[in-house]
Design a protein that fits this description.
single chain, 92 residues, mainly alpha, Arc Repressor Mutant, subunit A, 4 helices, 2 strands, 12% strand, elongated
Length: 92
């Protein structure tokens, strides 16, 4: 008797992800690594992370908000002028 294939396995065999999706995933992983490196010692604001990583502030904001959404970062207070939140790597 032949084993049945799962529907998801059939879909994976017949449909391939677009090359752009692979490139976007590589870029996200690169940015996530740079941001995590910047935050490993102490919490920082988005402008501080952007400066430490040489990532434009708009891109740093985008990737840090994605990391916050997916539970990789957490908020650790606000600066003295109530302008920026401090972010840190989420503790395991």
């Amino acid at each position: 008797m032949e084993a049945k294939q799962k529907t998801i396995d059939i879909i994976k065999q017949t449909r391939k992800a677009a090359p752009e999706a692979f490139e976007a995933r590589k870029l996200y992983l690169k940015m996530r690594k740079a941001i995590a490196e910047a935050l490993k010692d102490e919490p920082k604001t988005i402008p501080q992370v952007a400066e430490a990583t040489n990532i434009p502030i708009g891109e740093a904001t985008y990737y840090m908000m994605a990391m916050l959404k997916f539970g990789e970062l957490s908020v650790n207070g606000i600066d003295d002028m109530d302008e920026y939140y401090f972010y840190e790597l989420k503790k395991a």
